Amino acid sequence: MSYWLMKTEPGTYSWDDLVKDKKTVWDGVRNFQARNNIKAMQKGDLVFIYHSNEGKNVVGIAKIIKEHFDDPADKDWAVVEIAPVKKLSKPVTLAEIKATKKLANMVLVKNSRLSVQPVKESEFDMIVKMSQEK
DNA sequence: GCCAACGTTGGC
DNA sequence: GCCAACGTTGGC
Which of A14, A104, A12 is nearest to A57 (CA)? Predict the structure, then answer.
């Protein structure tokens, strides 16, 4: 069981859009590192949905419901299918993540431009915990 | 809106 | 194969 984080601009496709759609094919990834992560995802893995630019926060948890297959738009690339699991009661902001010592090594902090990134179990748990506090 | 950081492209 | 130039992402 692995954990991931995928970024989206809420103006383009938000968490609410995912909830409304019930599931979606996560396409448009055009970065080799991100593609490798897409291909490593397994059914049942959990994925944080992060809103970039607007919000800059982790807003919800989704899960992989279909492992990678060729992007219908371009066979050189891969996509996965995800479904929403749970909205975080309190979104966890990038500022809060940066302010948390245990999360200082997150890819989100270290390599902010990677759109599909792995998350350690300890990091995942920590963020879930932070979303429940207050 | 600006710009730093990063990835990719292409000339040599 | 190196690296300068360019384009894009995303935080501020």
Answer: A14
